[in-house]
Write a structure and sequence with these properties.
Elements (H helix, E strand, L loop, with lengths): L6 E3 L6 E3 L3 E6 L5 E4 L7 E6 L2 H10 L1 H6 L5 H11 L5
Antiparallel strand pairs: 1-2, 3-4, 3-5
Helix pairs in contact: 1-3
Length: about 90
């Protein structure tokens, strides 16, 4: 029997994708916003597709601010772009 692949929804594209194709951003219990690379951290999470244009859209619309209910920084988006492997300006 094949193991079930965990699916998560990207907050920008609204697509259901395998967890490995997404980047998880977490608001920790002490209101810190961090990129969760192994998907196991405590806190409220939001998923983004590993795509420079998706991350640029999230930055422009401040989507993570809305989903995580906290103010995000440009440095966070720069880190996300580095993980996605693209530079989009």
């Amino acid at each position: 029997m094949q193991k079930k692949v965990p699916l998560r929804k990207c907050v920008i594209t609204q697509e259901m994708r395998p967890k490995k194709e997404l980047i998880r951003v977490v608001r920790t219990p002490d209101s810190e916003v961090v990129v969760d690379l192994n998907g196991k951290m405590n806190g409220r999470g939001a998923y983004l597709t590993k795509d420079a244009t998706v991350i640029a859209t999230a930055k422009k619309k401040r989507t993570l601010d809305h989903h995580l209910k906290v103010k995000t920084t440009d440095a966070l988006y720069d880190q996300l772009l580095a993980i996605a492997g693209g530079t989009h300006e």
